[in-house]
Write a structure and sequence with these properties.
Strands 1, 2, 3, 4, 5 and 8 form a 6-stranded parallel beta sheet that branches. A two-stranded antiparallel ribbon has the order 6-7. The model has no long low-confidence stretch (mean pLDDT about 95). Helix 15 packs across helix 16. It has about 350 residues and is an alpha/beta fold. The protein has 2 domains: about 140 residues, Rossmann fold, CATH 3.40.50; about 210 residues, Dehydroquinate synthase-like - alpha domain (Dehydroquinate synthase-like, alpha domain), CATH 1.20.1090. The radius of gyration is 20 Å and the shape is globular. About 55% of the residues lie in helices and about 10% in strands.
Length: about 350
């Protein structure tokens, strides 16, 4: 990682062939393609022209990419952009049996290094998880590009990453862990503190478009730490300790267009973290995270993500259908889940009232 990390690309990918299809989001490609091309000038590696991934992580978009000559003929795939672009490329790489390298242009999620993809329906509702047989070969984190990305994406990335430690701990509690999952659950404890310690400064560096130590540490926590934990705590058939009730709030919100269609994934997950910690009666940690959320503008109330009492049943109904609903050491009920959302909201409103 670093502002000059693309200069190391050829030395790492050269064993995989001499052609790469560069696939990603339009904005991401506009930021990363020329620096990547410049860094590879004079090497035997030939890049395709930029290929748009389709705009959403859907199997239909992946299938369309798989028919393109530039993609079919390439020795390897370069996935450039955010989580949905990268996840789409995971399906393409798996189906075409090609090595995948990732180039995150935002620090908003851990897709850049994980062996899991989140896929959606055409109407943007959650569809399912896709499990490639391996994680990407290598991840290149250009902190200059990340620092120049919109601050809101880093902000949402912090909100999403805040869920990793508490969700993994809840999902794996009382389970018979073995080497891989035990390693993952222990590494999960390294995910929260860097966000709380460096998050505010990292956001300021992003506002100033200046990569610094704090931004580097937060980007590593968001993309790599949480991603490595995901790889160690997830298996397509045997175990899944990667997430739990915080993401249930997000998936439920996709059924409320005013919220799921307007607010960023990590923004909603940040309130989901407060819901999980409330549900599990971890009130001291909830209040710590809530204070941090407030310090960087992440939501502490339902209203901040355009949700209200009238939406809670819809959220709970959808949440009860996703895998995460079952990832707790006790049965989860819709009534208790809605009560936890209400109670977290009440605690958030109390925090706001005390500021006045």
């Amino acid at each position: 990682m670093g502002p000059d990390c693309y200069k190391d690309v050829y030395s790492i990918v050269r064993r995989f062939g001499k052609t790469a299809a560069v696939i990603g989001g339009k904005t991401a490609l506009s930021k990363a393609y020329e620096p990547l091309k410049e860094a590879l000038a004079g090497t035997p590696l030939a890049l395709s022209e930029p290929v748009w991934y389709g705009g959403n992580a859907t199997y239909e978009n992946a299938a369309a990419l798989e028919t393109l000559d530039a993609v079919k003929s390439a020795n390897m795939l370069f996935a450039v952009g955010g989580g949905r672009a990268v996840d789409t490329c995971k399906a393409v790489a798996e189906h075409l049996d090609k090595p995948l390298f990732t180039f995150p242009t935002i620090a908003s999620n851990c897709a850049g290094c994980t062996s899991i993809g989140v896929f959606y329906n055409a109407d943007d509702t959650f569809r399912d998880y896709f499990y490639p047989t391996r994680c990407p070969e290598h991840t290149f984190l250009n902190t200059k590009i990340i620092a120049e990305a919109p601050e809101a994406l880093l902000w949402a990335g912090i909100g999403d990453a805040l869920s990793k430690e508490c969700e993994v701990e809840l999902a794996s509690r009382d389970q018979n862990l073995f080497h891989t999952t035990l390693l993952g659950t222990q590494l999960a404890h390294s995910c929260t503190d860097p966000l709380v310690e460096y998050g505010a400064t990292a956001m300021e560096q992003c506002r100033q478009n200046t990569p610094g130590y704090e931004l580097e540490q937060v980007a590593l926590a968001i993309v790599m730490s949480t991603g490595i934990v995901s790889n160690l705590t997830t298996d397509s058939t045997k175990y899944y300790y990667n997430s739990s009730l915080a993401h249930c709030v997000y998936y439920g919100s996709t059924m409320v267009p005013a919220s799921g269609g307007k607010h960023l994934h990590g923004e909603i997950v940040a309130f989901g973290v407060l819901t999980l910690l409330t549900y599990d009666k971890q009130f001291e940690q909830r209040d710590r995270v809530m204070r941090f959320n407030r310090s960087v503008g992440l939501p502490v109330t339902l209203g901040e993500i355009d949700l209200s009492e009238e939406h809670l049943q819809t959220i709970a109904d959808k949440a009860a259908t996703v895998l995460e609903w079952t990832k707790a050491p006790y049965p989860v009920t819709k009534e208790a889940f809605m009560r936890a959302m209400r109670d977290a909201d009440a605690a958030g409103r109390a925090l706001l009232a005390n500021e006045q």
